[in-house]
Amino acid sequence: MTDDLLFDEFELNGHNLANRIGLAPMTRTSATDDGHATDRMARYYASFARGGFSFLVTEGVHPDATHSQGYPNQPGLATDEQAAAWERVVDAVHAEGSPIFAQLMHAGAQAQGNRYGYDPVAPSAYRPPGEMSELYGGSGEFPEADALDADGLTAVTEGFVAAAERAVEAGFDGIEVHAANGYLLHEFVDPLVNDRDDEYGGSPANRARFPAEVTAAIDEATPDEFVVGVRTSQAAVTDEERVWPDGEETAAALFGALSEAGADYVHVTGGDATAPEVPDTDRTLAELAVEYVDDVAVIANGGLGDPENARTALADGSDLITLGTGALANHDWPDRVRTGEPLDELDPSIVFQPDASLSDAEIPGDD
Ligand SMILES: Cc1cc2nc3c(=O)[nH]c(=O)nc-3n(C[C@H](O)[C@H](O)[C@H](O)COP(=O)(O)O)c2cc1C
To answer: Within a domain: residue 305?
Structure first.
């Protein structure tokens, strides 16, 4: 034990984490056109491990070569060649001493680019509100996504499992199932998108079923020590105000089902992880996760770049926290906080100009 919660060690499914601070998944659209991770991405990810992040979650990675890709130049784990390309990233991060988990993301209706054929799918026919993000290579309105039928669901699950198996081969320490932020698996949980009348729609338990089935299938197909996490949220990229209308009931059903499915962690995200954002309760989403998971680690994310907020999330019961923008501004956030050095603010002119792809100035050695 240290006298700072942030720097206590933690054991996650047999992995000894040096502190409670991880890198949040962040899409950077910097892979090759055919979805291969690059040496530059290896230097980018390794810099966070060198700066003290005790575990890293990659950007969203498309699992299959059909409907899952979300963004142009998004890396994949849909082919053996894409998996082999990740080895340079995994090795560079391991050389700095941190485990790395691949975030498996099926973009669902929020897809805004797909080199295998642009034909989005969702739980039900659905068009996301607003326009695509030009920062991530999209433009104009989203097309209406088609509803998945039973064969489509099977294909999605098989795609996730095959990608997880490739992640094992590439040397990843685990995967994170992306069931947050309005992408496919979140669209099942969200009753404003999912109006299915089969066993995957309707009640909170039904809406939790498909993400839980995908998680269980991955857990069965991968080694015991391989970490299987799941990310959840209320809000969507295309609707930041979105909440679960039956808040706590959805939380109870989802976190319960993910526990039974064998998840090693749930990673909950929202605008402010320390604020109650779930309808009809004064608890945070992370606190609800802590209450309703069974023997599963809870990771809190959202607005925790101020160390005091991060400590609050841990004091409120989360086991771990992750940082997105705070990490982009300070690749060595954990080391700076531990040694009392000041933190930098995020400079959007570096990270988001002209788009969200990696820029020279943010990668040590490339400027
Ligand atoms: C550039 C960027 C890309 C992101 N891409 C992803 C992603 O691929 N998968 C995901 O689950 N969240 C993604 N997010 C959300 C972050 O993981 C995180 O939830 C969000 O930034 C809030 O945390 P923060 O307040 O620490 O920044 C992204 C955020 C940013 C800033």
So the answer is: yes
**H helical segments located in 261-320:** 285-292, 307-315
Q: Is 183 a catalytic residue?
A: yes
Instruction: Please indicate whether residue 103, judged by its CB atom, sits closer than 6 Å to ligand 1.
Output: yes
pTM score, two decimals? Answer: 0.98
Total domain count, the chain: 1
Convert the pLDDT of each residue in 8-29 to its tens digit.
999 999 999 999 999 999 999 9
CATH number reported for the structural domain that contains residue 144 in this entry: 3.20.20.70
How far CA 145 is from CA of 133, 178, 187, in Å, comes to 17, 18, 11
Tokens 């039974």, residue located: 260
The dihedral built from the CA positions of residue 116, 112, 82 and 66, taken in this order, carries a sign that is negative
Q: Is 62 in the pocket of ligand 1 (CB under 6 A)?
A: no
Task: Write down the catalytic residue from 183, 200, 265, 292.
Answer: 183
Q: Which of 21, 23, 27 to mutate to test the pocket of ligand 1 (most atoms within 8 A of CB)?
A: 27
End-to-end CA distance of the chain: 39
Between the CA of 7 and the centroid of ligand 1 the distance, in Å, is 23
> Which protein residue has the closest C-alpha to ligand 1 atom 5?
26
Amino acid type, 169: E
- On whether residue 262 sits in a domain, the answer given is yes
Q: At residue 196, does pLDDT exceed 70? A: yes
Q: Dig out the tokens for 318 from the structure.
A: 């989360």
353 lies in which domain range?
5-362
Range 4-9, long-range pairs (CB < 8 A, 24+ positions) = 4/311, 4/338, 5/311, 5/314, 5/315, 6/307, 6/310, 6/311, 6/314, 6/321, 6/334, 6/337, 6/338, 7/334, 7/338
Residue type, 358: L
DSSP state of 360: G
pLDDT tens for 300-327 read 999 999 999 999 999 999 999 999 999 9
Atom number of ligand 1 nearest to Cα 325: 27
Ligand 1 centroid – CA 301 distance (Å): 9
Domain contains 367: no
Residue 350's contacts (CB-CB under 8 Å, 6 or more residues apart) are 359, 361, 362
Flag whether 20 is in a domain: yes
